[in-house]
What does this fold into?
Amino acid sequence: MDDSTLVFTSSLDVDSRMAFYDVMGSLAHVNMLKACHIIPAEDVDSIIQGLRAILKEIEDGTFQLDFKLEDIHTNIEFSLTERIGPAGGKLHTGRSRNDQVAVDFRMYLRDKALDAVKSIDGLVTSLLKITEDNTDTIMPGFTHMQHAQPVTLSHHMLAYVFKFSRDADRFLDAFDRMNKCPLGAAALAGTTYPIDRFMTASALGFEEPTENSMDSVSDRDFVNELAFCATQTQLHLSSLCEELVYWSSQEFAFIEMDDKFTTGSSIMPQKKNPDIAELVRGKTGGVVGSLMSMIVLTKGLPLTYNRDLQEDKKPVMDSMDTVIDCLEIMSKVMATTTFKKDRLMEVTSRGQINATDLADYLVTKGIPFREAHAIVGAAVRESIESGVNLEDMPLEKLRTFSDKIENDVYKFVPVQSCVERRISYGGTSSSSVDMELSKAIEQLMQREEVLRQEKQLIENCWKELIG
It folds into this structure.
């Protein structure tokens, strides 16, 4: 190769992150070659010894990369041959670089998916603590960024809990789909050697081998899917951060962020900027861009392997790193943020936020909802002009809008009553929130158990291979 070709085609700066998984894949592969009597046992023993020595250097950070070799896979194979001689060349029997890369990448992203779930659940735990501490904290609920109806802060936080719980479930679903082993598919058509693909799949902690050799080496669905999972999670983070940014402003003054997670101004001493929230919001663009890169990269590729797929790693590696970092720091931000309960209640008491409940009251008196809507609209106009809230308006004034209004109206229109009367499943009443909270905790505990089992299975596989 011309030096410029070598530089242009090298992927070592990216795929070196898969060094550990490359050794694991090779250990599983060579153990299978031995069990199937494809290469001599003494050569296998030398290969295993050499691979374990390389692995120790990788874990210690002392493994020397040769940038004249195009990727991590070649670096490890060449290093092995230098250490143990010609027997090292037998490691590649029955496999291709195509299935080798595919299995390494699946193992790498499989772990990243589980790491993402762990980080999501860390944030969920912080949000659940806010929920448990604020079951009676009332705040305005918004539509179109206008005061809509009163809700509890717990109800608001649980909305994010369920969003992030879905994100965690998506990562686990993606994990299940990617948890099939392409090793043994070889270049594209399988191999003539009598290999045992089920043995290597089991040794590496996969559920089973992939079903079709051509699909095995060309498939990047698992990459695209994980890039989408990261994007959806980051979008939810961005929404949460958007609210934190304006809630921390003096106009809202709903929250006070801890000094450890804010910054000051270079010239304005009074400033306390929500930089973490703004940066998380800003990083969303890069994560979305990584998804777009993968979609365009894989668009229209013919079967099977094409060199374009060398470019599949950096986008998803970057997006997974970003979303995990954002989740980790946002967990700390939420755990240390103070919510100003009195301010939330004060703001909720403004703006006729109980107007819908007055309309619902009129419906209970036999007035069609559309007519009730118009009646309350007139009452709201009077409330705005007079500066008197609906719940504080005298009965005689309210009756000027409808003679159906009686003294029992004052059981309907206080904001606390508005909250507690919303008893529908998933609503904001304390009884409904209690059910939501129990459900969210149950989901969290189930995910934690799945996470523990999957991580333990993979860790046991590594221990078995390393010896």
Remarks:
- The mean pLDDT is 96.
- The first helix runs from residue 3 to 9.
- The radius of gyration is 30 Å.
